[in-house]
Amino acid sequence: MIFRLGVLLFSLLLAACGKEPLYHEQGYVFGTLVDVSIYGLNEPEARQAAGLVLREFQRMNDQFHAWQPSELSRLNAAFARGEHASVSPELAAMLADATRYSVQSGGLFNPAIGGLIRHWGFQSDEFKPQLPEVAEVSALVKANPQMADLVLAHGKVWSRNSTVQIDLGGYAKGYALDRAAALLRERGVRHALINIGGNILALGKHGDRLWRVGIQHPRKAGPLATLELHDGEAIGTSGDYQRYFELAGKRYCHLIDPRDGLPKQGVQAVTVLTRGLHAGVDSDVLSKPLFIAGTTTWVGVAKQMQVTEAMLIDSQGRIHLTAAMQKRLEFTAKQTPEVVP
Questions:
Q1: How many CA atoms lie within 13 A of 113 on its CB side?
Q2: Is residue 149 part of a domain?
Q3: Looking at the domain assignment, is residue 50 inside a domain?
Q4: What 3-state DSSP class applies to 33?
Q5: Cα–Cα distance between 25 and 249 in angstroms, integer?
Q6: Measured over all CA atoms, what is the biggest interatomic distance in the chain, rounded to whole angstroms?
Q7: Cβ within 8 Å of residue 84, ≥6 positions away
């Protein structure tokens, strides 16, 4: 059995030395390593700002955890009982936003399949190499839980489908990135790099140069490629090497295809580059439907989701990427990627 939890998807290539005004603090939240780097402030101010971000991450982890006691787990329990539940304005807004992404993706991004994720053993800090009962998976697929089953009104949420179980694991890290960026900007922090398990958002610069990060190779140690992030840009990867187990020589990852209830095969990783007011959420969410779409239809889904900079690595390690993404990457070894329209 092989599995990895909280793998750092990107290597921060900061190369800080001497008395450079770079403050760096790490923590462990959302089941992964998180990292806040702040440039240009004195150490007490930077430490205070980084601490504020890490405390906010912990608050969100506690509030929106899918399988430990939280506001979200209480909501899921209410759905299973067929009851209405009061929710915070923050969670209501997140659910509405996640529903919008789900509809846009044609259901390939579907946080309502928490039941399937649990049956496959991925709502846990450790993954056992065992397969779920076929009948249970088939029943959940047939029940077809969707974010569109939710009804939000007057501070309450209920579901028209009792099998809906919300897991925001494909949304919350990106939401946290955007929250961190807003908090830092409010405190006057102009230059920072925020990394949540490989979903990374940049503010400003690293001194007189842009922040440079690396994209983890899905099968080897070290980065596959590097790139520079401009102010307000974010990058995120979905991969089969983050949360997975192996059984009888076959890899089963946490990225479940809601159409058949099975861990997606045929793709090692998808990376997207995003920008704008919701760059963080986009970096987390948009890689998922491309991964689930797979090698034959990912380009069409990227266009549908208005993703212009994306890269997919198939099960054979072949690299496919958009022309816009190719312009941004520097590969660490000679590659012959397929550039798609």
A1: 31
A2: yes
A3: no
A4: strand
A5: 38
A6: 61
A7: 78, 156, 157, 158
| pLDDT, tens digit, 9 for 90 and up, residues 69-123 | 999 999 999 999 999 999 999 999 999 999 999 999 999 999 999 999 999 999 9
Question: Considering only CA atoms, which of 195, 286, 282, 246 is closest in space to residue 9?
Answer: 195
Q: Which residues pair with 292 in a beta bridge?
A: none
Identify the H or E element spanning 50: helix 43-63
**175 CB neighbour count, 10 Å cutoff:** 22
Is 130 inside any structural domain? yes
CB-CB neighbours of 56 under 10 Å? 16
In a domain, 287, yes or no: no
Burial state string for 313-332 with b = 16 or more CB within 10 A and e = fewer than 16: bbeeeebbbbeebbebbeee
- Domain enclosing residue 150, as ranges: 71-159
Q: What is the pLDDT of residues 199-238, one digit of tens each?
A: 999 999 999 999 999 999 999 999 999 999 999 999 999 9
**The total number of structural domains that make up the chain:** 1
Q: Is the entire prediction scored with pTM above 0.85?
A: yes
Q: Distances from the Cα of 213 to the Cαs of 10, 73, 137, 332, in angstroms?
A: 6, 35, 39, 12
- Containing 203, the helix (H) or strand (E) segment is strand 199-203
CATH code of the domain covering residue 104: 1.10.3980.10
For 236-273, give the secondary structure using H, E and C: EEEECCCCEEEECCEEEECCEECCCCEECCCEEEEEEE
CA distance 110 to 259: 10
DSSP string, 88-153: -HHHHHHHHHHHHHHHHTTTSS-TTBHHHHHHTT-SSSS--S-PPPHHHHHHHHHH---GGGEEEE
E strand or H helix that includes residue 60 = helix 43-63
CA–CA dist 177, 280 (Å, integer): 5
> Count of residues for the chain?
341
